[in-house]
Design goal:
Elements: H1 6-9, H2 16-24, H3 29-49, H4 54-77, E1 84-88, H5 90-94, E2 103-109, H6 113-116, H7 118-130, E3 135-141, H8 142-151, H9 153-160, E4 163-167, H10 169-178, H11 187-204, H12 223-237, H13 244-247, H14 253-277, H15 286-295, H16 306-337, E5 346-347, E6 352-355, E7 358-361, H17 366-369, H18 373-383, E8 389-390, H19 392-401, H20 407-411, H21 413-424, H22 429-438, H23 442-445, H24 447-452, H25 466-480, H26 490-497, H27 502-511, H28 522-536, H29 541-552, H30 556-563, H31 569-579, H32 582-597, H33 606-625, H34 633-650, H35 655-662, H36 667-672, H37 675-687, E9 695-699, E10 707-714, H38 719-729, E11 733-741, E12 746-754, H39 764-778, E13 804-810, E14 815-823, H40 828-838, E15 842-847, E16 850-851, E17 854-862, H41 872-894
Parallel strand pairs: 2-3, 7-8
Antiparallel strand pairs: 1-2, 1-4, 5-6, 6-7, 9-10, 10-12, 11-12, 11-15, 13-14, 14-17, 15-17, 16-17
Helix pairs in contact: 3-4, 4-7, 8-9, 8-10, 11-12, 11-16, 12-16, 14-15, 14-16, 15-16, 16-19, 18-21, 18-22, 22-25, 25-27, 25-32, 27-29, 28-29, 30-33, 31-33, 32-33, 34-37, 35-37, 38-39, 38-40, 40-41
Length: 895
């Protein structure tokens, strides 16, 4: 839609007299025009920083560009004006030009003009590039325009927005005539093609505008969605402004105001973003978010950073724009696709009916007379899967009357019953909760949910807004209940099928993060909200306590699996005590898997899957055995050894050979490894001679969900440091490490590693590369490794995580527990290994966790005599060495 107005733009940006003077004094034309453009852009930037909205500046910049380009035209093609025309297309054609926008132009020529004017056309295009512009250009005849527009909806759209800059007006009119709606792309075909285009674009962004580095132009709810509305309105109604949609009764005044306010806010962001980046940049990257927040006047609060406030406004804006886009496209669909058709509605009840497969109210006063119908609409959508959606006129009424959802409404037994019925439906829960959220009903019915709408957390761990993440969690939980998705998580599907009340799990998913941003423990605060909600909605005390407990402890299982040594029977016993019974374990396991999957697409991998499944199975056994009957470690060792012996006997290994190897190993080894791992290690050690050491074995896809690496070597001071350094250079990420040393001076080290994409190593050549690199590195295990230098990835540069180094004692296992929390960066673990060697500390076990931009690693360590650390000097040495390696790493990666 053409928003350009030379009058509105003003002509104070371009001083024609000054330009003429510069040219008269001999200044080269390109240099003079480049300077004029620079000065005009600077004047516009000054106006923006002084508070002038981008809505006023983008047409002014288009006007400035017109004057510059028209001067170039006179220089290169003035004598050919009767045979060609210069046309602005795309955003420039609409008169919308941001600081870094492409300048899209088309030169219209007569059929033989391309050959006759070749040199002049080339000179014109070269001059545009010489000005420093990002130019999109084409040279076409009228026939070319017709042919290409017929084949490509994008070309047709660009030509629809074309604006004559200079040259022969007759050519321009001819082009407009042959590409008019009655000639190509009639309204119906145009609408269907543009709608398909939008669907494909939204899918590219995972159908959400709430990723934490959104594209303000192309993400759902972005500027392209507004342009989509404008294109359809222009093609079908000949509307040149969004205001015309009010005249055609597609928008109310209030909706029009919301649409323009949203567009203006996104324009302000885009204008500021282009100025900050110094180029076209439509992604709201972390690089710019904090600066933009400050520029837009936001300041940090106690529980809400300025950048989080700014981004919440952004996300709420695009949500509103998405709602308007959805409603308008449905109205257009009815006007364009079903114009003149009459279909008798099918009555569903006295409040709702179906027309052409869409749900609508039976009369305009339904919600005013029956406020509870504001929830009933979503239940009916669940109960009638044949319905394709809600009619736009009814969406408008929902939005109009949603203010009726107040405290009195929330206490209405009909409303409460309807909400719980929605939660208990066997189909459509995810779709209808999302629809409820889009229409603004969910946040009105559960005010605490309204508070988290659009709320982001400024980190790399949570890649969605809190509300979006929450609905993803509910979707993941629902998928566990749907047979066609059983292959994704078979164990979850099996557990889900035996849950007595799945709706309790969905409620826990809905409330698990609902208290984020309030200050305090969000799990505890959310648990109280969940309990009150359940009681108010007629759930029994046991069910309410279960939902509340799930919200309170929703992080317990993941924290136990990823930060504790679950090979330790005492850890399993304590976790089982906290869970209490099988019902609580089942619910918690499903919620944990869904929560991790829905937090960050890169977070869920085969290792975490296997780790949580192992914790679930071990806890299930502990609960069956009884909390008063904890596992006897000696019995567990005997059972594991017996299973390993059976495997080794089948592989032909003599029992005396096995006994000789096992005699060197302490009980700790048999507690921390499975029977299959013990058999694998034992067979390899038995076959190896001294000349084979260091022995390095790789199992590409082990049962623990990753690539398993086993090292058997002489124990030297730098074995761990050299191992992690070599793995770092190979680009592998360590997830778990278990180190066993023998009294005879050997070390048996087990690592679980993944590639950068979170997948196990799958290539045979890659496995051999691991073996070769590690053997070479460990041949010099009595010397410190040379650490690789790394560049800090772009995203990590914008986050600062204060380093925390905490020590505690694991008395029963005679170990010291070191917890290191610091900013994640490449090569960190290699530096830590260096620090251990420097302070003569032995690593026994490690749990490596990367939480977005944070490294949260737990190391189980001893002194050189396999005892917990006790010397204060050794504590100081380790603390100082770790702090130093973190500082050194910061300096190295920042370069």
């Amino acid at each position: 839609m053409n928003t350009f107005s030379a009058v509105a733009a003003g002509n104070d940006l371009f001083d024609a007299a000054a330009l003429d003077t510069a040219l008269a004094q001999g200044q080269p034309p390109i240099a003079a025009l480049r300077q004029a453009l620079k000065e005009g852009d600077q004047a516009l930037a000054d106006q923006f920083h002084a508070g002038t909205p981008a809505a006023e500046l983008v047409p002014r910049r288009a006007y400035l560009m017109d004057r510059i380009i028209q001067r170039l035209w006179r220089q290169h093609l003035q004598h050919a004006e009767d045979r060609c025309a210069l046309v602005a297309v795309g955003g420039y054609g609409r008169g919308e030009l941001h600081p870094g926008s492409d300048v899209d132009v088309m030169i219209l020529v007569e059929p033989d003009g391309r050959e006759e004017l070749g040199d002049q056309l080339e000179g014109m295009i070269t001059a545009l590039w010489d000005l420093g512009l990002e130019v999109g250009h084409s040279v076409r005849s009228v026939d070319d325009c017709l042919r290409e527009a017929e084949m490509d909806i994008t070309v047709a759209t660009n030509l629809m927005e074309a604006r004559l800059l200079c040259g022969q007006a007759g050519l321009f009119r001819a082009m407009r005539d042959v590409t008019a709606p009655d000639r190509i792309w009639p309204s119906r075909a145009f609408f269907e093609a543009k709608w398909a285009e939008q669907v494909a674009r939204h899918q590219k962004y995972h159908d959400t505008g709430y990723n934490l580095e959104p594209n303000i132009k192309s993400s759902p709810g972005g500027l392209r969605d507004i342009q989509m509305v404008g294109w359809v309105a222009k093609r079908h109604f000949g509307a040149n402004t969004l205001r015309a949609l009010v005249d055609h009764e597609f928008l109310t005044e209030q909706e029009f105001d919301a649409l323009i306010a949203g567009q203006n806010f996104l324009w302000d962001i885009r204008y500021a973003l282009h100025l900050l980046a110094g180029r076209r940049e439509d992604r709201l990257l972390f690089d710019h978010q904090t600066q933009l927040a400050e520029q837009f006047g936001y300041r940090d609060r106690e529980h809400n950073l300025a950048v989080e406030q700014f981004m919440q406004r952004y996300f709420r804006t695009v949500m509103e724009l998405s709602r308007l886009n959805e409603m308008l496209l449905q109205l257009f669909q009815e006007a364009i696709l079903y114009a003149g058709e009459h279909e008798t509605p099918v009555l569903l009840n006295k409040r709702f009916q179906s027309r052409r497969g869409f749900l609508e109210v039976t009369h305009r006063n339904v919600f005013r007379r029956y406020p509870f119908a504001l929830l009933e609409v979503f239940l009916i959508m669940q109960q009638h899967p044949e319905l394709k959606g809600v009619r736009a006129s009814t969406i408008r009424l929902i939005r109009q009357y949603r203010n009726l959802i107040d405290q009195r409404f929330r206490k209405d037994i009909r409303a409460r019953s309807l909400f719980m019925e929605i939660m208990r439906q066997p189909r459509g829960l995810t779709h209808e909760l999302r629809r409820m959220h889009r229409y603004g009903v969910l946040g009105r019915y559960i005010p605490a949910f309204g508070q988290i709408t659009g709320r982001m957390q400024y980190d790399l761990f949570h890649v969605y807004t809190v509300d979006s993440h929450t609905l993803f969690v509910v979707r993941s939980l629902r998928r566990f209940a749907i047979p066609k998705h059983a292959h994704e998580f078979p164990q979850c599907n099996t557990i889900m099928a035996r849950l007595p009340k799945p709706e309790l799990l969905y409620l826990a998913g809905l409330f698990h993060d609902i208290a984020k941003g309030r200050g305090g423990d969000h799990s505890e605060l959310g648990a109280r909200d969940a309990y009150d909600f359940c009681i108010q909605h007629g759930l029994g005390a046991y069910d309410a306590r279960l939902v509340s407990w799930l919200v309170r402890t929703h992080l317990l299982m993941s924290m136990t699996a990823q930060r504790k040594d679950i090979s330790d029977p005492d850890v399993i016993t304590e976790f089982a005590r906290q869970v209490g019974d099988q019902i609580h374990l089942d619910y918690l396991y499903l919620l944990t898997v869904a929560d991790i999957r829905s937090t960050n697409p890169s977070l869920w991998n085969s290792w975490r899957d296997a780790l949580l499944a192992e914790l679930y199975i071990l806890t299930k056994r502990a609960l069956r055995r009884g909390l008063g009957n904890p596992v006897d470690k000696s019995e567990l060792i005997k059972e594991t050894q017996a299973q390993a012996r059976r495997r080794l006997r089948q592989r032909g290994l003599h029992h005396m050979t096995v006994r000789a190897i096992w005699r060197r190993l302490a009980d700790d080894y048999f507690l921390r490894h499975s029977a299959e791992e013990i058999a694998w290690h034992t067979e390899a050690i038995a076959a190896a001679s001294r000349d084979d050491l260091p022995l390095v074995l790789v199992k590409p896809r082990g049962p623990r969900g990753g690539t398993e690496l086993f090292i058997y070597a002489r124990d030297h001071r730098y074995v761990f440091a050299r191992t992690v350094s070599a793995l770092d250079r190979l680009g592998l990420n360590i997830q778990d490490a278990r180190i066993i040393t023998t009294d005879q001076g050997y070390t048996l080290d087990s690592y679980l590693v993944l590639e950068d994409d979170g997948e196990p190593v799958s290539d045979e050549a890659r496995c051999q590369q691991m073996v070769d690199r590690l053997r070479t590195s460990l041949d010099q295990a009595n010397e410190p490794p040379d650490l690789a230098e790394h560049r800090l990835p772009r995203r990590l540069k914008h986050f600062s995580t204060p380093t925390q180094i905490n020590f505690s004692n694991d008395g029963p296992n005679q170990r010291t527990v070191l917890e290191l929390i610091t900013g994640d960066r490449p090569g960190l673990l290699a530096q830590v290994g260096q620090a251990f060697s420097q302070c003569r500390v032995k690593l026994k076990n490690a749990k490596i966790a990367t939480i977005g931009e944070r490294a949260e690693d737990v190391f189980f360590i001893t002194d050189e005599h396999d005892a917990p650390l006790s010397d204060p000097a050794q504590y100081r040495c380790l603390r100082d060495a770790l702090a130093q390696c973190v500082d050194d790493q910061n300096e190295s990666t920042a370069r």
